[in-house]
Design brief:
Aminopeptidase, 5-stranded mixed sheet, globular, about 150 residues, about 25% strand, alpha+beta
Length: about 150
């Protein structure tokens, strides 16, 4: 069994969003994410979320100070009852650093707990990592709530 790569996990700052966009673009290509990826729009959207105080983003840097993984989450009110909840939006990890994703997610969950958030939602795109994420989520005590479908109109 290979050892987990050594990384430093810390909050990602808005000025580091262009590096994050590079990871996001590569991930969206790998996963064939519907709608594609527009780096400038991604950066502006996350800058807005940081400004609004909703963004909770954590990055993983290797020994060469290269961003190799990121977990993008939000803290927002539940539209049904106003309870503050955490929502995972995306996580991107370079293939050679796969295995650190859980560390990124756990850092996000620690932040949520520190803020008094009691409920969170995570998801997984279909594709090569879907079954592994399902096993991981179940192993850490999560339960499947719903499945989403995507449609396209002419």
């Amino acid at each position: 069994m290979r050892s987990k790569p050594k990384v430093v996990i810390r909050p990602l700052w808005p000025t580091e969003l262009p590096q994050c966009a590079e990871l996001g673009e590569a991930y969206c290509r790998e996963m064939d994410v519907p709608g594609g990826f527009v780096p400038a729009f991604f950066i502006q959207t996350w800058q807005n979320l940081f400004s609004a105080g909703s963004a909770r983003v954590f990055g993983a840097w290797d020994e060469d100070r290269r961003l190799v993984g990121v977990f993008l989450g939000l803290v927002v009110p539940d539209p049904h009852n106003g309870e503050t909840v955490g929502h995972q939006v995306n996580w991107f990890v370079l293939p050679e650093f796969r295995g650190i994703g859980l560390d990124l997610m756990m850092r996000w969950l620690d932040e949520l707990q520190d803020e008094g958030v009691h409920r969170f939602v995570v998801g997984a795109f279909r594709g090569p990592h879907e079954k592994a994420l399902d096993r991981l989520y179940r192993r850490i005590g999560l339960e499947k709530l719903e499945t989403h479908y995507v449609g396209y109109l002419p």
